[in-house]
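Teaching note: in complex prediction, the entire set of molecules is handled at once rather than each chain in isolation. The prompt given to students was simply: 'Predict the structure of this complex.' The entities are:
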Amino acid sequence: MGLYSRYIFPRLMDRFMSGAEFQQLREELLRTAHGHVLEIGLGTGLNLPHYPGSISSLRAVNPAPLLPDRLAERSAAAPFPIEVSRISAERLPYEGGMFDCVVSTWTLCTIPDPLAALREIRRVLKPDGTLLFLEHGRSEDSQIAVWQDRLNPIQNVIGCGCHLNRPIDRLITKAGLTITKLDRFTMESVPRIGGTMYRGTAVVRAPESPDAR
Ligand SMILES: C[S@@+](CC[C@H](N)C(=O)[O-])C[C@H]1O[C@@H](n2cnc3c(N)ncnc32)[C@H](O)[C@@H]1O
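The expected output is the structure of the full assembly:
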């Protein structure tokens, strides 16, 4: 890890992603987190204050330590047990069907192989478990998408592996998960190339339709 990715980027990221709009979106998404939860790409722990105190446990993975002191402070304030592992989401060391809920916020943009990570998420979710996702990605507006493609190599460097142009919904579906709710919107505090959002829920099994009975 270089100086920039180890010391400078995590501080910039933590500050930028603590903004009011980010906080509100985290709060709204995590309200429904429940049971045994896995968070992929924990980062500096910005989601921790937003989990309901009623969750049973939180396991979290992140390949590299980012601002360990800040993460330790945020973890210490949480009213539920937390276990953080320095591993990548593409290969999770958990048994299948262990988690009620998996959370991914602004992480599928950065994971080198997001499809492998999503397949692992599908494997470790309980059959009735839920993926809660809040991600930026490819715009439906072709004029913005063109710029996302053009600027992606630069973003990759300054964002330490972040991609602007991943089609998050298609990746989730390709991994065998079923999207049960999807909101597409643009963040107000972020330029559109990086603020085109995918927020929703996905499940392992498609909910049974009343007509199928
Ligand atoms: C933009 S940050 C978002 C952090 C956090 N999820 C949040 O909402 O504040 C992207 C995160 O993905 C993590 N990451 C990168 N590659 C990963 C991988 N292979 N598996 C899991 N997390 C990864 C990075 O270390 C970083 O913490």
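Point out the following to students. The chain has a mean pLDDT of 96. DSSP finds seven helices and seven strands in the chain.
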